[in-house]
Structure to design on (950 residues):
């Protein structure tokens, strides 16, 4: 049972009068609980693919089905709801709301969802801040934190609503390799603990090594897909 | 509901924090909003107060609540005069018909007939005054009285007249030098000059006692008119049913003298008019200096106008000296010396020079001395209460008509005493107005012809009676015969005669019916409940149409003409200023918000990507700007209220001109803060703030979630 199903998707960008094909007839299925890495050279279409899966962009052709819903058939409002309730985003440049504290940034999606008491929210937020290791910074503003700390906040925010799917476009690109490694470890742990599906793009081979599956994309086409866990298992240990 | 509330909470939080995060921008936007609210609050409070002031002034002085006038009139009714003089109104032929109809309209309390016009008034002059005194002495002497006191007065008064004849001759001699001896009126001028020469000779005065009446008549008929030439002025009056007028206009009051008795002829001269045009120039200037010092904080030492007045007062001493015969002059000098601390021998001219040489230190004392010591010996007003004056005006029929009326008092309007706009207005009885206006309906003309016949008969009786009054019937008759000779060709009727017919007319009491059954030019309607003005205006129109009266109805503001438009003009000015201000504000706020939105595109994209709906984003932006509008709008309104309060505490906005005095309905305007002004200002700034945020909000709405992904830096 796949949570994401991309079927014969193409995406063209218009650059002036020339058509730039970013994706060409891509099909991909992502199963629940996968920790999938998308790799490929710059300009190959990684971000474009993630945007389509994350319902922030629409394909030129083909279908994108997320959590069983054909995104092409959803209204703008329904798409927003889908993003709010089903998907979590971790951005390359963290994208925290600068005027809100760490706690409030993480609480933000919960408030948008509504339906919880203040206490329930606080417990949830604090638990996540604890899990990503920045509970002591709850009251700080994002500007007072380091890059790694900010990305932890972003991860907490992406996970606070218990989304089925978390998308991350080069989450470690703006971090040094040690911090980047920590962040991947953190994501991996969340993946293991809650069974949350992660799809992330990266250039970093060390990061790719953590993935359960690796999709290589080249020139807008899927070049290969390897199941690393299976390979690792096959490689024997 | 719960999810919405949570979302709203975080929305407010972000909006507020965004404001705090950029204090400079918020400060600038806030300042604009604050100033805007301040302008609106102060501006509209002041305007409302002016509106109220003007309502009081107009309704209370001449306007009433509604005015009606003949619909066929060429011009519009302008109660306080227009740019081209008096309104060109067709007459309402029979006021009683109008009154009968309009009084029946609900909410109409009173209908007051009016006719406003201007006329010439002979003011009399110092020469007349001196002659009058001499005449009094002559009458007593001719009546057989005698005694050293009377002889002394007689000599003094004769000396006074003689001195004035000499002055007049000097003046005319100068005029002759520049005039054309061959001109059309040369013969007349020559005869005038000869008369004057004769009156200036020693022989004429030596012979005074030989033929007192004859000499007196010569002076009156041949010499006095030469001094009279320039001595007239224009009087603006409203002819009205005087009792009804005072009932209708609560601001009207008599300050000196008394009201014109019911049904009688008479005039109440506008106090301000009297001050400006009839008062002795030196006294008027002293008043003006005092006013400038007391009310406007001016000082003689550093104000050119005040210095000019002081200079003119020193030059104007001659006018005072002219009024005084030797006896009075002596008495005055004696009183002035100790008051001014002058040496014992100092002559009157020097004393007066001392009195009018004012400095800031000495002025108040000198002002008091003038009114305590000098003024009682002078005729302060050229026309004063108790006088009978001749009013002349070109009538409808083309001839000059003239009436003699007694001045019963000075009239002023409470609260706007100093305003020339209402203060120039005099009140004349309706009958005299009609005589001056001279419009005759066929029926009326016949009536008057009949009346004139009987009056003519009575006039002759009068003359006899008067001669008897003088005691020496024979002498008087001889005198008159002589006068007839001298009088040949004279255009003016003999003064005594005029006085006699005036006395007769003045004593006549007209019935209310006579008053109302005749011409009026317009009528003021007073309402029971002024709040229902618009409805009553409609009712009055209907009643007029139903009765076929052919009248035009206007409200008090329109009837006030230019003056009434003053507030409208102010409103337009304020409105334009406010519109321009807010247009600029709109552009600035819009720009600032567009920039702020563009700066936040990534943040907005992020919020959208993680599940924030569009409307949330738009609302956030609007809340942000509305907060600025509300907070700073309130602050501005509060500050405005403070300014309004400050103005009141500081003594109001002074009415520095006539017009302001009138529209402020007093010497200063005390603006009152209206709830409407505060509410209105808040509404306006909020509206402008939100309008100016609409475009930025549109930009924000168009931000797509993809923009969160943009990797800038
Ligand atoms: N908004 C856009 N307008 C036009 N062309 C675009 C746009 N976004 C992407 N492209 C083009 O589409 C292609 C795929 O771009 P995409 O950003 O998906 O690549 P990427 O694999 O994420 O590259 P990188 O590793 O550099 O982030 C590229 O050729 C890019 O130039
Ligand atoms: Mg990319």
């Amino acid at each position: 049972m796949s949570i994401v199903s991309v079927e014969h998707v193409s995406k063209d960008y218009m650059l002036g009068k020339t058509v730039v094909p970013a994706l060409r007839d891509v099909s991909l299925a992502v199963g629940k609980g996968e920790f999938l890495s998308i790799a490929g050279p710059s300009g190959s279409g990684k971000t474009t693919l993630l945007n389509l899966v994350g319902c922030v962009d629409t394909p030129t052709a083909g279908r994108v089905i997320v959590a069983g819903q054909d995104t092409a058939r959803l209204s703008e409002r329904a798409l927003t709801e889908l993003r709010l309730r089903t998907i979590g985003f971790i951005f390359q440049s963290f994208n925290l709301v600068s005027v809100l504290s760490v706690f409030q940034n993480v609480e933000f999606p919960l408030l948008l969802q509504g339906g919880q008491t203040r206490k329930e929210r606080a417990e949830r937020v604090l638990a996540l801040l604890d899990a990503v290791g920045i509970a002591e910074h709850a009251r700080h503003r994002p500007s007072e934190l380091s890059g790694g700390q900010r990305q932890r906040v972003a991860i907490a925010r992406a996970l606070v609503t218990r989304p089925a799917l978390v998308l991350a476009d080069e989450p470690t690109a703006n971090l040094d390799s040690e911090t980047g490694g920590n962040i991947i470890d953190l994501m991996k742990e969340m993946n293991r603990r809650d069974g949350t599906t992660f799809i992330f793009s990266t250039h970093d081979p060390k990061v790719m090594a953590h993935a359960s599956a690796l999709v290589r994309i080249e020139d807008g086409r899927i070049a290969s897909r390897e199941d690393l866990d299976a390979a690792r298992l096959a490689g024997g240990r | 509901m719960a999810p919405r509330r949570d979302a709203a909470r975080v929305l407010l939080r972000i909006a507020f924090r965004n404001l705090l995060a950029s204090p400079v921008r918020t400060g600038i936007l806030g300042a604009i909003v604050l100033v805007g609210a301040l302008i609106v609050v102060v501006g509209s409070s002041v305007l409302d107060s002016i509106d109220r002031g003007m309502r009081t002034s107009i309704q209370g002085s001449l306007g009433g609540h509604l005015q009606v006038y003949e619909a066929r009139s060429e011009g519009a009714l302008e109660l306080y005069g227009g740019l081209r003089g008096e309104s060109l109104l067709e007459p309402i032929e029979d006021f009683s018909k109008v009154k009968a109809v309009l009084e029946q309209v609900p909410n109409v309390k009173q209908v007051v007939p009016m006719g406003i016009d201007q006329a010439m008034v002979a003011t009399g002059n110092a020469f007349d005054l001196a002659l009058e005194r001499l005449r009094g002495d002559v009458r007593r002497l001719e009546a057989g009285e005698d005694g050293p006191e009377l002889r002394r007065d007689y000599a003094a008064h004769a000396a006074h007249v003689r001195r004035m004849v000499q002055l007049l001759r000097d003046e005319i001699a100068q005029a002759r030098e520049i005039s054309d001896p061959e001109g059309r009126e040369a013969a007349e001028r020559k005869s005038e000059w000869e008369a004057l020469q004769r009156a200036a000779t020693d022989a004429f005065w030596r012979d005074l006692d030989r033929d007192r009446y004859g000499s007196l008549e010569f002076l009156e008929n041949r010499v006095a008119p030469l001094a009279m030439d320039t001595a007239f002025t224009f009087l603006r009056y409203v002819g009205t049913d005087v009792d009804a007028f005072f009932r209708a206009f609560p601001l009207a009051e008599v300050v000196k003298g008394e009201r014109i008795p019911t049904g009688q002829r008479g005039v109440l001269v506008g106090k301000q008019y009297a001050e400006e045009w009839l008062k002795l120039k030196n006294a008027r200037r002293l008043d003006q200096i005092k006013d400038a010092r007391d009310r406007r904080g001016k000082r003689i030492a550093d104000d050119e106008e005040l210095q000019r007045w002081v200079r003119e007062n020193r030059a104007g001493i001659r006018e005072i000296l002219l009024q005084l015969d030797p006896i009075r002059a002596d008495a005055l000098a004696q009183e002035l010396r100790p008051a001014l601390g002058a040496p014992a021998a100092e002559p009157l001219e020097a004393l007066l020079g001392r009195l009018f040489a004012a400095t800031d230190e000495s002025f108040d004392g000198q002002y008091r001395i003038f009114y305590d010591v000098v003024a009682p010996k002078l005729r302060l007003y050229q026309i004063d209460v108790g006088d009978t004056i001749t009013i002349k005006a070109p009538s409808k029929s083309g001839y000059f008509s003239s009436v003699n009326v007694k001045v019963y008092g000075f009239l002023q309007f409470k609260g706007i005493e100093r305003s020339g706009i209402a203060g120039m207005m005099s009140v004349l009885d309706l009958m005299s107005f009609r005589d001056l206006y001279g419009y005759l309906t066929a029926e009326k003309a016949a009536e008057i012809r009949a009346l004139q016949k009987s009056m003519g008969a009575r006039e002759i009786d009068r003359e006899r009676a008067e001669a008897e009054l003088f005691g020496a019937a024979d002498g008087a008759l001889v005198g008159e015969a002589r006068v007839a000779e001298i009088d040949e060709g004279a255009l003016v009727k003999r003064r005594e005669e005029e006085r006699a017919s005036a006395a007769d007319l003045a004593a006549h009491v007209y019935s209310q019916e006579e008053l109302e059954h005749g011409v009026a030019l317009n009528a003021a309607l007073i309402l029971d409940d002024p709040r229902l003005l618009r409805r009553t205006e409609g009712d009055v129109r209907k009643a007029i149409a139903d009765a076929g009266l052919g009248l035009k109805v206007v409200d008090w503001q329109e009837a006030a003409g230019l003056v009434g438009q003053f507030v409208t003009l102010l409103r337009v000015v304020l409105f334009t200023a406010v519109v321009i201000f807010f247009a600029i504000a709109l552009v600035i706020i819009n720009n600032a918000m567009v920039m702020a939105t563009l700066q936040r595109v990534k943040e907005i994209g992020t919020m959208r990507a993680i599940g924030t709906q569009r409307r949330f984003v738009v609302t956030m932006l609007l809340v942000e700007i509305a907060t600025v509008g509300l907070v700073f709008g309130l602050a501005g309104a509060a500050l405005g209220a403070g300014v309004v309060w400050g103005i009141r505490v500081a003594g109001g906005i002074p009415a520095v001109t006539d017009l302001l005095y009138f529209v402020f309905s007093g010497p200063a305007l005390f603006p009152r803060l209206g709830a409407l002004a505060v509410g209105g200002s808040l509404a306006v700034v909020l509206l402008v703030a939100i309008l100016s945020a609409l475009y930025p909000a549109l930009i924000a709405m168009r931000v797509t979630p993809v923009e969160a992904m943009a990797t800038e830096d």
